[in-house]
């Protein structure tokens, strides 16, 4: 064949083909795998600068740009509409601030995220070291994350420190012999290493390098104190928190009725004879479960030796009929509940007292309570008699003139409480609701001669005043965080077990947890369970089975006090429940017997129901298949803003940082 037979156009076309073929081989990483769900790979490593996005870290279609965290949500996506609808129902805490951990500090050597997570009320004996500190738990029976060197990798990729560019260069040199499975293994090893480093950083944040020591964290209590003649312990605003959640590490969380009982008991063993006073707010809502909580809280405070309790805003969401069954006098003694301006069925009915007088070590203490007018005017129970706070105090304080110490429990805002203190200077101690979540560590402020005490929220702490008989105007003060130095009380834990047993007997229906339709059910279909995803997403499914999400229900079943029938717990441990309001969606988890496939935090907890998607994949409608795949697609940004925060909130996961936690559950890439 002669060159003269080629036209100039043919020569130019041949050169273009050669050029394109050469460029194609320069960038082999752009053409190996196709995946419609790019995976986030942005983690801190060894205290260095964050790894940046690169083409090799992003598994995408040819010429796809690296994924961006600022990619706007596609409003045409049905699942986005579902997420938006759910997000509007969530109570998003304001105290969850993303923050990264410096990884250059020593880290705890722990295994990967398939470690079983078990709730316990108290650290076991082997958790306490000789100094009294509690070390971070070390995972047992766990499978270590394989390092990149343990996975079949291409040449030059066996070192964990090999750069992406080095690996790609090696693949370029031996392109014909590169096994796609080997390249996939290399990507998976990289993901697993990121997960392992993230898990270490999480444990470091929780427990430090030497384990969590509550005394080091919160200090010693009552240092330099001699035994007071009168020890008063003030609490309030428990707001449903009978005990800490425990999901984020119970050993480092504060509060709980069980620990509070142990604290009172420890003071009695020192001969202090503490008297408790509570500013109210045992619960914050209404319903059958709230009634049971109020009953349990009241009985617990009685056993601790409380002298008086007032009624808070949340308590008064129960009807007068319900309240009376728990607050009225019994054969065991008079009512512990006092109020100068609120009374179920009227002030003359006698179900609650206007005030109480106590005599301790020769000191006479008078106590009453009030509900702030801003709360009182919002009550709707017709059987509840009320009057302005100042009017009630004016009537009652006159009857306490013979007391050496007058205490007022004010379930009101700090501003309202301060106004009452100024109006009635004869009050020695006034205790307020509202204020900061944690009581101040410094001595309480004085309003004239009145000591103003704040109690914080969620029962995490107690405020203690110690009085000497000859110095009743100069009390000593100690804030006590109810941390893990106070072990669980067997007596209160027995009440907790009875409470959980009652929840199990009643069932979700009697607890007013009835299912409601899931948004866009017509498009997305019903919940099917993670096992149905396995056939098409086997690698992702196997990875999920090794995460704590998969065993989330087991943590409730295996707890010292099992909580697998408590709606407020299971809503974050199963598929098909709304996590913040703790109610089930239609077709969501019912029980281990009826819906075992929905136990645990599964694929549909994040991606939404998969019923329609699975049905479409069995058909031939390509457009419908594409639409439903897109509806289940979830970007990291969407997960962070709409999904994860529902369970990983300030109460249950106070240290949650999406960028730190995400690599632990980030599922592998697939072909």
In short:
It contains 21 helices and 15 strands.
Helix-strand layout with pairing:
Blueprint: H1 8-26, H2 78-87, H3 164-173, H4 180-207, H5 214-218, E1 230-235, H6 257-269, E2 275-278, H7 288-304, E3 306-309, H8 320-327, E4 342-344, E5 356-360, E6 363-371, H9 373-376, E7 384-386, H10 389-397, E8 405-411, H11 414-423, E9 429-432, E10 446-447, E11 450-454, E12 461-467, E13 476-481, H12 490-510, H13 521-524, H14 538-545, H15 552-557, H16 567-570, E14 577-578, E15 583-584, H17 603-607, H18 611-617, H19 622-632, H20 636-643, H21 658-665
Parallel strand pairs: 1-2, 2-3, 6-8, 8-9, 9-11
Antiparallel strand pairs: 1-12, 4-7, 5-6, 10-11, 12-13, 14-15
Helix pairs in contact: 2-20, 4-21, 6-7, 7-12, 18-19
List keywords for this structure.
6-stranded mixed beta sheet, about 675 residues, disordered N terminus, 21 helices
Radius of gyration: 31 Å
Strand order, sheet with most strands: 5-6-8-9-11-10
Percent in helix: 25-40%
What is the average per-residue confidence, as pLDDT, rounded to a whole number? 78
SSE-based structural type? alpha/beta
């Amino acid at each position: 064949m002669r060159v003269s037979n080629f036209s100039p156009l043919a020569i130019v076309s041949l050169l273009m083909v050669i050029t394109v073929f050469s460029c194609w081989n320069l960038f082999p990483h752009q053409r190996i795998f196709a995946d419609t769900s790019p995976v986030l790979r942005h983690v801190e490593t060894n205290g260095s600068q964050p790894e940046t996005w690169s083409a090799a870290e992003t598994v995408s279609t040819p010429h796809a740009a690296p994924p961006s965290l600022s990619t706007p949500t596609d409003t045409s996506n049905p699942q986005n509409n579902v997420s938006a609808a759910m997000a509007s129902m969530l109570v998003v805490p304001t105290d969850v601030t993303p923050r990264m951990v410096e990884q250059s500090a020593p880290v705890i050597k722990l295994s990967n995220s398939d470690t079983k997570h078990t709730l316990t009320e108290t650290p076991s004996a082997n958790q306490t070291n000789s100094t009294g500190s509690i070390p971070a738990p070390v995972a047992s029976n766990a499978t270590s994350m394989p390092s990149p060197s343990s996975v079949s990798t291409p040449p030059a990729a066996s070192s964990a420190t090999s750069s992406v560019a080095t690996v790609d260069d090696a693949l370029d040199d031996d392109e014909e012999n590169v096994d796609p499975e080997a390249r996939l293994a290399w990507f998976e090893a990289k993901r697993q290493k990121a997960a392992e480093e993230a898990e270490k950083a999480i444990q470091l944040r929780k427990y430090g390098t030497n384990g969590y020591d509550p005394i080091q964290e919160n200090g010693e209590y009552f240092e330099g104190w001699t035994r007071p003649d009168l020890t008063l312990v003030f609490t309030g605003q428990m707001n449903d928190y009978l005990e800490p959640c425990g999901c984020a590490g119970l050993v480092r969380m504060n509060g709980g009725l069980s620990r509070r009982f142990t604290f009172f008991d420890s003071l009695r063993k020192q001969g202090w004879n503490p008297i408790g006073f509570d500013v109210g707010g045992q619960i914050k809502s209404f319903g059958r479960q709230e009634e049971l909580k109020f009953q349990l809280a009241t009985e617990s405070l009685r056993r601790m030796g409380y002298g008086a309790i007032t009624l808070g805003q949340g308590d008064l969401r129960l009807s007068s009929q319900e309240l009376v069954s728990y607050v009225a006098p019994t054969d065991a003694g008079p009512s512990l509940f006092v109020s100068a301006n609120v009374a179920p069925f009227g002030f003359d009915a006698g179900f609650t007292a206007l005030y109480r007088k106590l005599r301790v070590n020769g000191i006479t203490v008078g106590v009453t309570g009030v509900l702030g007018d801003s709360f009182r005017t919002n009550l709707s129970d017709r059987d509840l008699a009320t009057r302005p706070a100042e009017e009630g105090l004016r009537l009652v304080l006159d009857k306490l003139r013979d007391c050496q110490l007058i205490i007022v429990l004010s379930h009101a805002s700090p501003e309202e409480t301060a106004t009452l203190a100024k109006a009635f200077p004869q009050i020695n101690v006034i205790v307020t609701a509202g204020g900061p979540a944690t009581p101040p560590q410094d001595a309480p402020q004085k309003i004239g001669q009145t000591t103003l005490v704040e109690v914080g929220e969620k029962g995490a702490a107690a405020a203690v005043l110690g009085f000497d008989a000859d110095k009743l105007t100069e009390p000593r003060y100690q804030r006590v965080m109810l941390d893990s130095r106070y072990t669980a009380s067997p007596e209160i834990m027995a009440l907790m077990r009875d409470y959980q047993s009652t929840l199990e007997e009643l069932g979700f229906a009697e607890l007013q947890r009835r299912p409601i339709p899931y948004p866009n059910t017509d498009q997305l279909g019903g919940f099917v369970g993670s096992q149905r995803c396995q056939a098409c997403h086997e690698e992702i499914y196997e990875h999920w089975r090794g995460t704590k999400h998969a065993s989330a229900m087991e943590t409730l079943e295996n707890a010292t006090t099992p909580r697998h029938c408590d709606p407020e717990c299971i809503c974050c441990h199963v598929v098909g429940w709304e996590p913040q309001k703790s109610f089930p969606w239609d077709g969501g988890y019912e029980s281990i017997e009826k819906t075992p496939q929905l136990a645990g935090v599964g694929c549909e907890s994040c991606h939404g129901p998969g019923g329609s998607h699975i049905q479409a994949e069995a058909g031939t409608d390509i457009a419908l298949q594409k639409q439903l795949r897109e509806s289940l697609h979830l970007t990291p940004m969407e997960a962070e803003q709409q999904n994860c925060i529902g369970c990983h909130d300030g109460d249950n996961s106070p240290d949650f940082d999406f960028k730190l936690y995400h690599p632990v559950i980030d599922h592998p890439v697939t072909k």
